[in-house]
Amino acid sequence: MKKYPVMILCQLCMLMYSATAMAATAINADGYYKGIKLCGKVKVVEHFADIKVNVVESFPDLRVKVVNAFPDAIGKWQFVEHGEDFTVQFVESFPDIKIKYVESFPGVE
User: pTM for this structure?
Assistant: First the structure.
């Protein structure tokens, strides 16, 4: 008799843990990563970046369109040398987010 409540409790805990793990993504649905809105003017740096980025071709966290002006929507980035909104460092391993460059439909996957 005591085995059934314990088994049910264990299954419930495993279900809750797997749902939490599946819901955890680097970027939230509004396009923010750790409070940084992922649009705007971006400066590329070698060290101490706000975000470490890996460029991929499949399964990105964010689709990025490079623009020359008006980077006002999530995924639209304008690369600058001064006056940046945030900084990125391009890495091959252990990125904070993965991006894919696109020509249309930028935004969160």
Answer: 0.77
